Amino acid sequence: MKVTLIAHTPEPEKVIATAAKLCYSSSDIVSLHDGLDDEKVAGFIEMLASIGHESVMEHVSFTFGIEGVSRACTHQLVRHRIASYSQKSQRYVNENGFEFITPPEIEAVPEAKAIFDEEMKRLVDCYEKLADILTEKHKAELIAQGADEKTAASRARKTANEDARFILPNACETKIVVTMNVRSLFNFFKHRCCNRAQWEIRAVADEMLRLCCREAPNVFKYAGPSCVMTGRCPEGKMTCGKFAEVQAKYKELKG
Question: Do 77 and 184 have their domain in common?
Fold first, then answer.
């Protein structure tokens, strides 16, 4: 897994502080922005975070490149609706010899890993065979319709991929670009940094949070799973029961 912070709103904390300060001032916006030094910004962000004033956080966004994750992971990720996503297409990208993600619990058991690897190899072969068979079918049809061989071959393969992809497993490796505003990130971290979240998306969320803290430490000071954000676990009987351990983990993660 690799998570890269591609871009973010310049001076994120100052932008948020400016937007929030405007709500309580009759001054012009440029004067408000220019009048904020680092100390004032930090103090104002601390106040906003402590009272839960999150609407002004929407003015700042972060864009991440996420690679080496499974389709199982991104299926969960894209359920967070207030965000923008661009994912590697299994329709347009040839998945011959596709990479796959092996869950740690399977990796740790030689017998389980052997079964898993064998099945992935079978699916790799199956995908390639299906794509080849369908490519030949579509190519013949296109040539019969008057297309030249080179054009027919290219179009046929793309069309074949549309149906061959149905054999691809959730383990199939994918890449995705994600943009979220800060308020959406708070919600994302609240759910996906939780110990009860699936291991892969939790690892992605942890790395995203670490990168966010590096760029805007005051904004993300209280971000994390619900027990870190609010001091209590909302999971009831489903709690992991590791409150102190989780608190210590995110204290270290944020530096």
Answer: yes
Q: Consecutive 10-residue runs of the chain (255 residues): their mean pLDDT?
A: 98 93 83 89 88 90 98 97 96 95 98 98 97 96 94 94 96 98 97 96 98 96 90 88 92 91
- Those residues with Cβ within 8 angstroms of residue 202's Cβ, 6 or more apart along the chain or in another chain: 192, 193, 194, 195
What is this structure's pTM? 0.93
Q: Give the structural domain span for 160.
A: 104-167
Residue 81 appears among annotated catalytic residues: no
**Which entry of 71, 165, 192, 202 is annotated as an active-site residue?**
192
Query: Is residue 83 domain-shared with residue 48, that is, in the same domain?
Result: yes
Last residue of a domain, one of 167, 199, 215: 167
In a domain, 93, yes or no: no
